[in-house]
Amino acid sequence: MRIQIGNREFEVRISENNEESRIGLSQTKTLPKKEGFAMKFDGTMSIPITMQNMTFPIDIIFSLNGKVTKVVTAQPGDQDIIIKQPSDLIVEVNAGEASEINSKDEIKFIGKKNEDGTVEMAEGGLKTIGDRQVLDEDGKNQMNLIGGERIFSRTSTKKMFELAKEKEYKKLGKFVINEIWKQDERPVEYAAN
Q1: What pLDDT digit, counting tens, does each position of 71-111 carry?
Q2: Is 9 within the bounds of a domain?
């Protein structure tokens, strides 16, 4: 998957599960230039990174809500690299390749870049963190679905916002539970690729 961080682009492999995130690049002997490894997390948390089994230095790019929060260079053998800011995405690249990346730089998943310079989303979207995407009117990815998420219609979402704005929290809770119950009772539906 192609990712743009500030004015830099990398081809990254995205972690598919917690075990891959735990291993990271520790079993990688070398990393080609402009390539990396990305770990996406549900929610936001402070993520400890260890370099215990690494054989080469890396730059670790921490981000939250699509913006870089910190860039740290880590050496083989370093342990428990933790930043105080929570993160929902961490990208690891070769040491020095993140030198032009700054805090607050934007991060975008941009798919695959073709030889003619056009960009297309990878087949199935960000396949490793979700086979399905929620797209906006322009076809841009807004969210990846892993499975089991709840998506409410615009009408239901509008109703939930109205109840929250009116501070009708009991009604809001009952409404959400009712919407989830309705979803659970419906037969499973699949969208065509």
Answers
A1: 999 999 887 788 878 888 999 999 999 999 999 999 987 76
A2: yes
